[in-house]
Amino acid sequence: MTRWRTVRLAGAHDETAGSRTLVFDAPDWPGHLPGQHVDVRLTAPDGYSARRSYSLASAEGVELTVERIDDGEVSPYLTDELRVGDQVEIHGPIGGWFVWRPATTPVLLVSGGAGIVPMMAMIRARRAAGVRAPFHLVHSLRSPGRLHYASELLSPDPGVRVSLLYTREAPGGHPRPPGRLTAADLDGPGAACFVCGPTGFVEAAADLLVGLGHDPGAIRTERFGPSGS
Question: Last residue of a domain, which of 55, 71, 94?
């Protein structure tokens, strides 16, 4: 049974101009499956509290990547104010459908924007488990400056293929012109499919996968939208 636990910030670094990765010291963390998330709760001195859900980015331990929402209640504090040694409350791990367990089946990961976070957890878990199942990450983002985990994704592990789809501005020499996700960017049936991103992106990607012949019941999706985070 999950419960609320207090964790302490052990380290942090910027992923992009608008996002920050937070690594927490959580000695009693029970472990998690890649794709699961936690709720983060902040409580003000007057007792008012706000909570938001964030995907775990790590194979082990508690690591979150938070995208800053300018008018949010939680994300501006996590990205701009939280300092090493500060404490927050978390509840989790949560979720049992959108998870990857080590197997030999090929995996197709399709993400948009901050939807890359749970996909990174899956890629890292594959590495940690020594699994040889081929992974293909298809990640859609607006421009090069929006790329999370750049050092890992631009030099991926053997067996992990990374396809970056820029929708507005592509770096010089990129083989694909800017544009939205299309069926030509995706693989046909035979892979376990995970799709994560904004609601519109997830729905469009799932439709494309079904059109390519994937079983609709086997496409695992996780979506997010404006929440005031």
Answer: 94
Residue 203 CA to residue 220 CA, distance in Å, equals 11
Separation of alpha carbons 129 and 108, rounded Å: 18
Expressed as residue numbers, the domain containing 163 is 107-224
**What residue ranges in 44-123 does DSSP mark as E strands?**
49-55, 62-67, 87-94, 107-112
Q: Is the pLDDT of residue 229 over 80?
A: no
SS (H, E, C) 21-52: EEEEECCCCCCCCCCCEEEEEEECCCCCEEEE
Contact 154, 131 (CB under 8 A): no
Q: pLDDT-derived band of residue 228, with 50, 70 and 90 as boundaries?
A: very low
Domain count, the chain: 2
Residue 218 lies in a domain: yes
* Core vs surface per residue 40-49: b (16+ CB within 10 A) or e: bbbeeeeeee
- Pair 24, 7: CB distance under 8 Å: yes
pLDDT of residue 223: 93
